[in-house]
Design brief:
Elements lengths: L17 H37 L6 H33 L2 H18 L5 H4 L2 H31 L5 H26 L4 H8 L1 H19 L5 H8 L7 H7 L2 H30 L9 H29 L1 H24 L3 H29 L6 H30 L4 H18 L29 H9 L1
């Protein structure tokens, strides 16, 4: 009689090509995210300091700033629709091809921005064309980061999922860093040349960058978890219906988790720049100097995002995420008071800490947390909805609401401190409403917040829902 121990059943991760596929997925997600977010971050920087002057009536500078941020916010309105549309496709047909389409859509719209006529040439049509391009950008972006997040979470080794899932978001930091560096370099140009043609160069050059990202993603393989769904014929026929019947608790808590991370990111990257470099304070900071805060913050984020992802593998997603939310809550009022002083060194430090520490400490664990919250049949759509609805409520409103509050109060920094603290408080509370998802089996069909009888996840939301059923 044989005494050999029985072999464990094979999983998708036993594939001998798994290591190579993991590297390929990491490259496809990270490089694609970096190149895509280069355009996205560049648009945000241009909004605060360029588009308000070129695409709106220069006779009313204050309304130009509000109008530019309103167009910026319009793109966020399109993001949930893109998330719903592409998320459904991603859950029905697979993750890979959605990522190919979204990079083309977003890259094409970004390149077209570099060709748009200004207000001086076509009047109000300049802003209208900018709105169209922004809507296309937002529609593509609605599934881009959700796809990269789901892709890496489903490819990553279970015990290192937090670290590997965070790697694509190094791409976000790298793309933001590159955009800030390019913008800082362009700001050294004579202002007339910069406003005449210099600002167009990075948008037009992004076409080549998008081709590189497209080449990498075309070589990507489908994720092991989706392959398993197909193998067992469990792919959801109607993921959109499923998410509304079983997945809404995860979507709602995901929105809450994103309020401080997403809203704080855009507040520090865009509203803070408009505040310190505009007419809101007595001693405005040079726009090139202020942009260095974004640059340094993004550089810090390249290290802090994977670090906090790794820490979430060791200590859990919730405590690491909660640290970032509480840090932002405590940082909100001191940060805006220091920005109001108009000191260049303090300005750079505040923006860098806000992006590189407060935001990044939530972004790191979030990369694995959101995919772990949803079951395999509607994971892409669930993550996309949580991300993009929150992007409208947090990031999309940050620019227009923040500048409107500052204009309404004559540049009073207290209102922005209160605004940022409110977002942080919502996210802090949300960390108490989710189960710990570290090492969760992503082949499971059930959402983490709908605890099944054989799962040991705990949390207020899951307990309330389980008891109610």
């Amino acid at each position: 009689m044989s005494t050999a121990a029985p072999t464990a059943p094979k999983t998708p991760y036993d594939d001998p090509e798994y290591a190579a596929n993991l590297r390929r997925a990491t490259l496809a997600s990270s490089v694609g995210s970096a190149l895509e977010y280069f355009d996205f971050a560049l648009y945000g920087l241009m909004t605060a300091l360029v588009f308000n002057r070129l695409f709106f009536d220069p006779a009313d500078p204050a309304m130009g700033v509000i109008g530019a941020f309103a167009v910026y916010g319009v793109g966020f309105v399109a993001r949930p629709f893109g998330g719903f549309f592409f998320g459904t496709i991603g859950d029905r047909l697979g993750r890979k091809w959605v990522l190919v389409v979204t990079i083309l859509l977003m890259g094409g719209a970004s390149t077209a921005i570099g060709l748009l006529p200004t207000y001086e040439v076509v009047g109000v049509w300049a802003a209208a064309l900018l709105v169209v391009m922004r809507l296309l950008q937002g529609f593509g972006a609605g599934a881009e980061q959700a796809g990269a997040t789901v892709l890496m979470a489903e490819y990553a080794p279970v015990r290192q999922r937090g670290f590997f899932a965070a790697l694509p978001f190094i791409g976000i930091q790298a793309g933001t860093l590159l955009a800030a560096l390019v913008f800082s370099g362009l700001s050294l140009m004579p202002e007339d040349a910069f406003l005449a043609w210099g600002w167009r160069v990075p948008f037009l050059a992004s076409f080549l960058l998008i081709l590189i990202a497209l080449f990498i993603r075309m070589r990507l393989r489908e994720t092991p978890t989706f392959v398993e769904l197909e193998k067992h014929e469990q792919v959801a026929a109607h993921p959109f219906r499923d998410i509304f019947t079983t997945g809404m608790p995860g979507v709602i808590t995901g929105i809450g988790l994103r309020m401080a991370e997403n809203g704080g990111s855009y507040i520090f990257q865009n509203v803070a720049l408009a505040f310190v470099a505009g007419t809101f304070i007595a001693n405005p900071v040079d726009r090139g100097i202020a942009t260095w805060g974004v640059t340094i913050g993004s550089l810090i984020g390249i290290f802090s995002v994977p670090l906090t992802g790794w820490l979430s593998d060791r200590f859990g997603r919730r405590p690491v995420y909660r640290f970032g939310a509480v840090f932002m809550l405590l940082f909100a009022f001191p940060a805006w008071w220091m920005l109001s002083l108009g000191d260049p060194v303090l300005t750079v430090a505040v923006i860098a800490i806000g992006i590189g520490v407060a935001v990044a400490s939530m972004l790191g664990p979030q990369c694995a947390l959101l995919p772990e919250m949803f079951g395999n049949r509607h994971r892409y759509l669930g993550v996309a909805m949580a991300r993009e609805i929150s992007a409208v409520l947090a990031g999309g409103l940050a620019g227009v609401l923040g500048t409107w509050l500052l204009t309404l109060t004559g540049g009073n920094w207290v209102v922005m401190g209160l605004y940022l603290a409110t977002l942080a408080a919502i996210t802090t509370a949300s960390t108490f409403l989710i189960p710990e998802t570290r090492s969760r089996d992503l082949l499971r069909i059930q959402d983490a917040v709908r605890v099944s009888t054989d799962e040991k996840d705990t949390g207020l939301v899951s307990v309330v829902i389980a008891d109610a059923r």
